Amino acid sequence: MTDAPQPADFADIARLIDAARQRAVQAVNTALIELYWQIGERISRRIAAAEWGDGVVDQLARYLALTQPGLRGFTRANLFRMRQFYEAYPDAQIVSALLRQLPWTHHLIILGQSKRPEEREFYLRLAVQEKWSSRQLERQFKTALFERTVLHPAKVSPLMAQVHSDAASVFKDSYVVEFLDLPSSHAEADLHRGLLARLKDFLIELGRDFCFVGSEYPLQVGGRDFALDLLFFHRGLNSLVAIELKVGRFEPEYLGKLNFYLEAVERDVKKPHEHPPIGVLLCASKDDEVVEYALSRSTSPALIAEYQTQLPDKALLRAKLHEFYLQNAPLADDDTP
């Protein structure tokens, strides 16, 4: 007599069903995005050719409501959004390669909040890469991620740039942790406990490829015991990432302690197939010139970043970004000296 099957015996069938459901949802989303783009194209081209006026879109919405009873999503407002969608991405190749990977809700957020084409592409690519929910995507706009990335790219040590050429695109110059609700005056222990309590949110802020390894990770050197604040692993870089927390301003001597921890992780924790570990000093504030001097002679793959306990002033950052683009705009022909 054979043994009765156990729930674990059915797991592979359940996985097949889940995978099929996901493919079906993706197929429906792909078809919808392509349909919306095609409708937007027809509306845009006919209005541009003076075949239609804007008022025709009202008639189209009423016609669809009359001839397609129960059809949702084709109101006047949404039809104009489809037109905007096409005009933002008139290249059909981009649609097939990237846009159809995101739900319509994500596109509406990006279209409604992006001011420049490069900003749209920035959020498109990251939303696909990081698999953000619509709520997480909204938060990235609130944290002014694009403005911060352009104005303040991550500053890494020379060895970091040499060993991990992609590191500058993985790490940030500042991390926003407003979800911790920390008071302006807080201790390192408060920051540490808060990050552990909201680890899921912190991992989203760090990036999708980060995996948590441990807190106060024990390191033994000689006859002494040390504890590393936080240890992560980055799958894309194939490296351990050691994070030290400081609630004050960055001081150059902090880098010496981080280098010591990285040496211990390299010798005693890293596995043979992994790349050299990376160190991150997460401070409440920093002077960029002091950071540059400190990192220039660093013998470890390291970077210094800030943490921000409140959402940044997005209007101020947008103004600074506008000034940045003006300063870096290429000279027009008639301005050439």
Describe the protein.
The protein is an alpha/beta fold and 337 residues long. Helices cover 53% and strands 16% of the residues. It contains 15 helices and six strands. It has helices spanning 11-48, 55-67, 76-88, 92-97, 104-113, 117-130, 134-142, 145-151, 158-163, 167-170, 188-197, 199-206, 253-268, 288-296, 314-328; strands spanning 174-176, 210-221, 224-234, 239-249, 275-285, 302-308. It has a six-stranded mixed sheet with strand order 1-6-5-4-3-2. Helix 8 (145-151) crosses helix 15. The protein is globular and about 80 Å long. The termini are far apart. The relative contact order is 0.09. Mean pLDDT is 90; it is low at 332-337.
